[in-house]
Design brief:
This protein is of the alpha+beta class. The protein contains 15 helices and 16 strands. It has two domains: 253 residues, BirA Bifunctional Protein, domain 2, CATH 3.30.930.10; 90 residues, 3-Layer(aba) Sandwich (Rossmann fold). Bound molecules: histidyl-adenosine monophosphate.
């Protein structure tokens, strides 16, 4: 079959190669360590959820729900969605498992695949992976700062360079409505100069005009008042506190008055952690406070804050920052064998060495000794164990020191201890 006839991954979906998986492990290990330090507990939730959870939670008018959600109808007529994000599921979990009665706030983290029917392009996939950290049941500004701090330290630990936290406060719904009215009034004056998308947003979701990337829209947006000027004293105080705490923690941040984020549930703090290279700005993490979501999903209100990171984007940022992850450990010992009796012995020695913590390699599928020795050379091992028919009969092995080429017979019964001692 010619290559182009293979059935390939669907558009926007991608495989994780062994190298990708090594990066994923490294990132997951960092997450686990930080989760332990900051006292977050890991949960997992279904990839398929009731579509209503996102319509209500993420917002029916958001791009994520309106344009990008994969939905399906089951044979029994349920309408389910492939989860496009994790926050509504975490809140559902909190309610469904009675976490309201646990000591508050409840700190949870998760990791896994998410799905959005996006225009596929570099760094933007239709199946991608996120991890998220959420704190439900706490409204203090210190929790906003802790979430930002955790993500910032995690990225720094992964040696990602040129990180900046972009931050804004969008207040509570009432304040935002007042601001929105002012925006619409002003934007109407230059409606014809806005891009097609923003003209549509003007009626349905005017705040999103603030983060439109079109130069013509950006110029208009530059003249608009800022949402922080419409905050209540309480919200302004909260924002001030978050910024002061970030200062105390030495986290570099930049106020971005146009940051609004594309999900409906945010209140007060919104932030992104971006990697700014010369020409490009990539959002690795996005999050904020969502004090209204628990109530929106049907329970008495509870404040909350959290964020999620795009794992593919982190991998690419690690690579561009020069952080290479080795995905195959270099072996220390190679086992070469010749003949059926020797192969049996070789398999046993491999297992004994492995159990003693030695990194072993083999080529059991090869029967030419020459080919096996060449492989051992290429792998750069310290020692090669050679077992031929003679050794198998004598109860010995030949131990070759690769740096000198020196070979010696060793009793089979002493071989494993000797190798272990010499390494
Ligand atoms: P989000 O900004 O939509 O927020 O996604 C968070 C991160 O996921 C982004 O910064 C980006 O790195 C990554 N990401 C999003 N879409 C894609 C894509 N199509 N391909 C690759 N990476 C992507 C949320 O999802 C919120 N649930 C975050 C949150 C948690 N807010 C409060 N708690």
């Amino acid at each position: 079959m010619a290559e182009e006839e293979f059935i390939q991954t669907p558009k926007g979906m991608h495989d994780l190669t062994p190298e990708d998986c090594a990066y994923f492990y490294r990132i997951e290990n960092a997450c686990r360590r930080l989760a332990k330090d900051y006292r977050f507990d890991r949960i997992d939730f279904p990839i398929l959820e009731n579509a209503l959870l996102f319509k209500k939670g993420t917002g029916a008018n958001t791009d994520i729900v309106e344009k990008q959600m994969y939905t399906l109808r089951t044979k029994s007529g349920e309408v389910l969605a492939l989860r496009p994000e994790g926050t509504p599921s975490v809140v559902r979990f909190y309610l469904e498992h009675g976490a309201r009665t646990w000591p508050q706030p409840v700190k949870l983290w998760y990791w896994g695949p998410f799905f959005r029917y996006e225009k596929a392009q570099a760094g933007r996939y239709r199946q991608f992976h996120q991890f998220g950290f959420e704190i439900i049941g706490g409204g203090d500004a210190a929790l906003d700062a802790q979430v930002i701090n955790l993500f910032y330290r995690l990225l720094a630990e992964l040696k990602i360079k040129n990180l900046v936290v972009e931050i804004n406060s969008i207040g509570r719904p009432g304040e935002r409505e007042t601001y929105q009215k002012v925006l619409v009034k002003q934007l109407k004056k230059s409606e014809s100069e806005l891009c097609v998308d923003c003209r549509r947003r003007l009626a349905r979701n005017p705040l999103r005009i603030l983060d439109c990337k079109e130069p013509a829209c950006q110029e208009i947006v530059g003249q608009l008042p800022h949402v922080v000027d419409y905050l209540s004293d309480e919200c302004r105080q909260h924002f001030q506190e978050v910024l002061e705490l970030l200062g105390e923690l030495n986290i570099p941040y930049r106020l971005n008055p146009h940051l609004v984020r594309g999900l409906d549930y945010y209140t007060r703090t919104v932030f992104e952690i971006v990697q700014s290279d010369d020409e490009e700005k990539k959002a690795l993490v996005g999050g904020g406070r969502y004090d209204g979501l628990v109530e929106l999903l049907g329970a008495p209100p509870a404040p909350a804050v959290g964020a999620a990171a795009g794992i593919e984007r982190i991998v690419s940022a690690m690579k561009s920052s020069g952080h290479r992850v080795v995905y195959r450990e270099k072996p220390e010992v190679f086992i070469a064998q010749l003949g059926p009796a020797a192969k049996k012995e070789a398999i046993k020695i491999f297992e004994e060495l492995r159990q003693r913590g030695v990194k072993v390699a083999e080529a059991f599928g090869r029967n030419s000794l020459n080919a096996q020795l060449k492989r051992a050379d290429r792998l750069g091992v310290k020692y090669t164990v050679i077992i031929g028919q003679k050794e198998a009969l004598d109860g010995t092995i030949t131990l070759k020191t690769m740096s000198t080429g020196q070979q010696r017979f060793v009793k089979r019964s002493q071989a494993v201890s000797l190798i272990k001692k010499r390494l």
